[in-house]
Design goal:
Layout: H1 3-23, H2 33-48, E1 68-74, H3 81-91, E2 96-100, H4 102-107, H5 109-117, E3 121-124, H6 138-156, E4 162-163, H7 172-181, E5 184-185, E6 190-191, H8 199-209, E7 214-219, H9 225-238, E8 242-243, H10 246-250
Helix pairs in contact: 1-2, 3-9, 6-7, 8-9
């Protein structure tokens, strides 16, 4: 039973009990605002913090004594930056997972093929990455996921099972959409904020917060990721961290069996 179900049951039990007490004039009317406010706050936190596994389970990290981590890149492929990133990863013999947008795959077909050819995993990050995605119905969410899976399968001949929610936001509608499409939800344990922070701040965070068994969230849509990942990969090697793919880190299948 996920936290959402448990907390909702508790909330309605408490609310029902308080209404009875209110009818008996045992408590003031304003006191009803306390459980309601706390419940709404929990829903907001549960939706925005993917690692809480509030509505459903997401793979964010694993417990291990080995110094292993997984690298992930969101929002590509980008026509200029992704090829440069692939070269850097190849130079360091590092494998990653690219959570791609369906519309970008359609526009950068050859780059997606090269990403797969280089041994990286391709995951689903919706078709459009709409800022309104979290307000879509489960049916519309599933349609975006299916459209991206179709684009990926058409490009590399494999149907992905790994899905990363846009902005890491989860809710009951997305739970239904993932059940309909048989996808694994993938979160992260370390968010670099590489898309909004300068190079040095990103590197400082990566070097100070990298932990064994973690999943690092990066993006292949900004030019500064190239020097960042180059230096970070050197740091990982110096500090005896080994980079593994998500399927190996979590022992799951990245693509549907033929």
């Amino acid at each position: 039973m996920f936290r959402y179900t448990t907390i909702s049951i508790l909330f309605f039990i408490i609310l029902f009990a308080m209404i009875i007490l209110l009818q008996r004039q045992a408590i003031p009317a304003w006191s009803l605002a306390i459980p309601v406010t706390l419940y709404l706050l929990k829903l907001v936190l549960g939706s925005t913090l993917i690692g809480l596994n509030f509505y459903f389970f997401s793979y964010c990290k694993t417990k291990t004594n080995e110094k292993v981590i997984a690298l992930t890149f969101d929002d590509g492929p980008h026509p200029v930056i992704t090829p440069k990133l692939l070269d850097i990863l190849e130079k360091h013999e590092a494998k990653a997972t690219f959570f791609c947008l369906g519309k970008n795959i359609a526009e950068n077909n050859s780059i997606t093929k090269q990403t797969d050819k280089n041994g990286h995993l391709i995951g689903n990050h919706t078709f459009t990455h709409s800022k309104w995605f979290d307000l879509f119905s489960a049916k519309k969410m599933a349609a975006e996921i299916k459209a991206t899976n179709k684009e990926i399968e058409h490009t590399i001949g494999k149907k992905p099972t790994l899905f990363r929610p846009p902005y890491g936001v989860t809710n009951p509608s997305l739970k239904k959409a993932l059940e309909k499409t048989n996808m694994f939800s993938i979160g992260w344990s370390l968010r670099s904020f590489d898309a909004v922070r300068d190079k040095q701040k990103v590197l400082n965070k990566l070097k100070s917060k990298t932990k064994a068994g973690g999943v690092v969230l990066l993006h292949d849509t900004d030019e500064k990721i190239i020097p960042i990942i180059d230096e970070y990969l050197v740091w990982l090697k110096t500090n005896q961290f080994k980079i593994v793919s998500l399927d190996k880190l979590f022992n799951i299948e990245a693509y549907e069996s033929a």
